[in-house]
């Protein structure tokens, strides 16, 4: 099948083709044809009964034949073509083969040989009339048809010498101006790299425009004369194979298959997406006028070539590189899209249905830069909710993103791109077609493509940057949940243990989101941008909620903010660098296959939106994950939505002042503290509330909420506890029950109440204004920092404001704070220079898991120590907020409290430091296995035999530890168990010790437990291990008492060893191997205390409260009052005397000061304090 007809080149352009046409010249537009049929190459069949006209799309190899046919107005035969229907006014005809065509004129080879070169033409006298000489030139660049005045279109052609091989030698270049509708019929056949024969042209003088006289930019050497062509037959092209094209400015050329085309709301092609060697490259084309033939030919599947492009030095998520087209660029179809399709008639799906009809050769005004258009195109690809979609919404978001970059970005390249767009928007002048085509400069670099600037983007950045990343709130939520799953699976695959109540906090940054979402990297230090509706701003902190139609997530800001008008229609763009997630293990269940349930917001239980929490099962465990977003900056997308700076509230109290002095309870007074660690215990619902969440706050110095704080400004040693309660309505409990039942099989429908109450506690906390505590405390975060990490570590740590009115002092002097979760005001503060934690286990991510229990005597293991995990603190580390005192001053406070029958002066919760004190003697020590769940000592199993006590077994002890009954720390308890049948994971060896402490001003009895005991005793690791091993074999424990000699059993065992036959000399290690574990442990404990020497240290202690049934031993002393006069007699009577109870102290930590004597300083400190109290 073939078609015979003529090719018509129509250039009847209407006023729509130019944005610069004065309206008064075209008041009557009725005479203009329709824009769709006004300009382009059309095929008109010769058959009389066929009245259809076809828009012609031909490959690059057939362009010259089509142009020749249009100029000669002769008939041609199309032998291979495909008709694409469904255009409103015409059908599209994609031609692959033309069997015959009529040339307008056959030029002999002698005319090509006798033609002049450009250099010869310049040496010849120029004439204002038409030249009779022919010139051979090589095309370097050709502009599109420029319709500044639609009735007088023209185009530029830059040509050079045919013999010039070096692309940089442009000294003999020349500019050709093709004018007139008939002459422009050959425009489509002129391509960069072609050899042209010019004749019947006119040489015209031309003055360099003022716009090209700018300084500091490289220009092409523009001659003072141009060649003007107005006749259709003045240009001929040489037949044969085309030579390889080399751009004179080394502008990049790209070939690839079209994978997508994006359009503006006016129907203009905005971005052309090409697949080049497996990567997607975008070409911005809004500044390039194109024909209607090329407009419809750029379809998915077409293979095209783009020449003379500009590297825009920015990229998007969908495009690895972005290029821009200017008036010097050319886009050519090498193979039509229908070449790979067998059908002869192909429907044009979704083509020009919802967009306006294209306007051919539209020379539009430059309203925005390519950066702005690429950013707008990128925003339109984001799948926002239906209520947020639309071109107007995308434009508002684009302006907001550029405002964020302009005000807060630290990336100079991005700021430069925004500055170019601002200058272009501020100076909406008429486009200078001469400058756009001629003014170009090359800047060669090490990139794969050289960066060449032009008139449209002179200040193009040198570095390759990425466009600001924009995501919906739902995508951020989905990505964060996936990251939490990966961390949990990674821990389980590495053999880590998970138990009920284990809480783990994660802080993800922008790079983690990019990597998981498989998107192109961001600019360095640039945040992720999220669109949402802020609501429920906390008055005293930086907490608020960010939501859209699909989800509602809690968030915090970097500074105090508030909305000028809060409503459902107020939309903002929030920039964020940090994303916080927390997960808690609810328990191990008989669970179905891996699944996930999204929980609604706590305050909107019947809403269709997702909240910040989700239930998921991994590895047979049920987890509840909660999410939180930290926003750097917030900008409204319209004038009605504005964010202003909030009021900064001064904080009158801190942790140290609350614990040391009685403070008046005001309704609106707060005290501040940094979250140290958190505990989530199992608690029952009582009177509609759960009171199972405990927070430990440590001391910090700022009296305002700081945006950034150094780690030296806080002290984890000075801390207090807060019990937060959560109100649980029945409807929320019923919803959680239904969700947990989804993860159980029919045999396990009766789930434990512990799982339900843990889930309700976490859910209520995560969807409150206090949800920022999910970031983890200072102790937990420091465990995630490896010692080999950089010294300048920065993390987000919760900063809490607690109402003073929630204080509840007990009868024993301990201060507790009990409040509702909604009463807490939580902000996130960036803490810098966090040192690594010195702990004995590997510093991995899962080390941040909080077991939820911090017992008396547990050391702050995150502080830097020397001599192992139980070594002493380095000097003055973490001592901020801890006051110096002496034992003499503490005894005076004890007397004052006895007089008033209170605990105000001793303040049992306050940590004090006693400088230069000495532990004179240790009077008692006990090592025993205890359950940390019910605090009950372990006992022997009922079905096991008693411990071996015969001499033979003692001397031949070589039994291996049983594999069962092993704790989470790896210790075996040897036929011992908790009397309440708690799991062996809760078993732990507990150390207790007491002694006499003296600092030169007084004495006190010092008590220590657990890790603090090991710190005070300074025992070696090997000795500690052997003693704990012996404690695991007996339910009575290993006991040392100074007032009592060693047990007779120990003495008997040592005497037996003297009679035991030995070969060679018996060493101490050899003797220890022959002893039973309990006997060996008792011997090592007595040996250690016999060699213990008094050491001067700084002791951090808490005072134990005075007992309620205190008894003062009263005695009577006779006293004699001398007579005042000689005649009087002395008075004899009795006076009462009381012996004070001992001052009892609890050890928190200590620091060694070798070779220092601080007794004199303690006397001076006590004297100064007395003088201060008297004043």
Any overview of this molecule?
It is a single chain. This protein has 1175 residues and is α+β, with helices and mostly antiparallel strands. The chain contains 23 helices and 58 strands.
Short summary of the structure?
By secondary structure, this protein is α+β, with helices and mostly antiparallel strands.
Largest sheet: 10 strands, mixed
Q: With helices defined by DSSP (H or I, 4 residues minimum), what is the helix count?
A: 23
* Beta-strand share of residues: 25-35%
Percentage of residues assigned to helices: 10-25%
Determine the structural class based on helices, strands and strand pairing: alpha+beta
Q: Which features characterize this protein?
A:
58 strands, 10-stranded mixed sheet, 7-stranded mixed sheet, alpha+beta, 20% helix, 1175 residues
